Amino acid sequence: MCSHQTQVEKLVDEKSELEARIEELEKELEQRKYHQGLIPRPFWNRMPSLWFSITESEFKVAGVTDDYTKYNYLVSQLDEETTEKVKDIISNPPVRNKYVKLKEELNKRLGEPEHKRMRQLFDEKLKDRTPSQFYRHLQCLAGANITVDKILLHLWLRRLPKHCQEILASRLEQTNTKLAELADNIMEATKASETSNAHDTVVDNIQQSVDELGKQVVALEVTVKRQQSRSRSRSTSKPRSVNTPAKTPAELCWYHTHWGSEAYRCVPPCSWKKEEPTKD
């Protein structure tokens, strides 16, 4: 009984192996049949989207529908440089949709980033092209993925301040509504910062004006006191004595002249010396 069961299991295993081999051979025969109707076309790494458009039209004519054949045909048309850029996909392709995955990665890695294509779309000039040639050129730049919403988004971005554009450029995967709200927050934060800086500038300017006025007041007070001193000396007949002159107010700044040790600010030149605490 046991030997009979073992024999049945072996037959089942052999049957599975044969079915898998038959499926593999059928795919190979189908692929060879398709290849007879497909023209070898080396991949255009400078215009991947156009290459895919032409090749997929040929797939339809030749009746190629299975992912296995499309994927292998695509890989066979890549040059060494292009293969290097997608070697991670080729070395470890997904179980399903190999062709679709490789196509997406080739377009992404070889094509211009969308924001660059959009900028070129808006900045492009007619040059020596006819209007119809220029229109077709713009169509090629736009591609199939650039919608009206994306055009509006980039037109809107171009009219924002540069610092706002730079922040939003790294978040273009978000919805247009979210980007607009983020732009509002950036502009509000910028205004608050500019207001704060402007306030600091005004305070600095006022303080500088006060300092200058203080210097002028001290100079005028010194002039007045000198004139008063000369008037007094003329009205008296006392002989002149040679004494060490006392400190004049000119040696002190306006703040120390008026507030002495309680002055909250000092503007040079000023001879005020802070009193050292007495040691016990």
From TrEMBL:
PANTHER family in the record: ENDONUCLEASE, RNA-DIRECTED DNA POLYMERASE
Entry coiled-coil feature ranges: 8-35
Feature: compositional bias, Basic residues: 227-237
Xref: InterPro entries: DUF7041 (IPR055469)
Origin organism lineage: Eukaryota, Metazoa, Ecdysozoa, Arthropoda, Hexapoda
Keyword Metal-binding: no
Keyword tags: Coiled coil
Protein name: DUF7041 domain-containing protein
